[in-house]
Design a protein that fits this description.
Helix content is 0%, strand content 48%. Strands 2, 4, 5, 6, 9, 10 and 11 form a seven-stranded mixed sheet that branches. It has a four-stranded antiparallel sheet with strand order 1-3-8-7, with no helix packed on it. By secondary structure, the chain is mainly beta. The protein starts with a strand and ends with a strand.
């Protein structure tokens, strides 16, 4: 049974940092492309950052580039999202996702439809 469980969200002030964790069971994160999405109030879920299942190639959207970093700890079977210099517009429910992907192990999956498994989400609220 493949499961993803996010943790680490909370209420912070603008400029603060948070690290979100995505603990996996039923599969190993080293065998999957992983990604983080977020859904702000009144908006659709959007891609934030992702990592390929080999070579750890990453891609982060412009709004988070330089502030957010995705990383993989294969020994702990966990994926992290380090968020620095948080802004009020970062307020959203953050979701971890995993996919087996296709034959290309170097791809970073950026579309919601490209992912097979999802966590329940964790709330991040940034006050000004």
């Amino acid at each position: 049974q493949v499961q993803l469980v996010e943790s680490g969200g909370g209420l912070v002030q603008a400029g603060d940092s948070l690290r979100l964790s995505c603990a996996a069971s039923g599969h190993t994160v080293s065998s999957y492309a992983m990604g983080w999405f977020r859904q702000a109030p009144g908006k659709e879920r959007e891609y934030v950052t992702g990592i390929s299942r080999s070579l750890d190639i990453t891609y982060t959207v412009d709004s988070a580039k330089g502030r957010f970093t995705i990383s993989r700890d294969n020994a702990k079977n966990t994926v992290y999202l380090q968020m620095n210099s948080l802004k009020p517009e970062d307020t959203a429910v953050y979701y971890c996702a995993a996919t087996k992907g296709g034959p290309n192990s170097r791809i970073v999956v950026t579309s919601e439809a490209g992912y097979d498994y999802w966590g329940q989400g964790t709330q991040v609220t940034v006050s000004s």
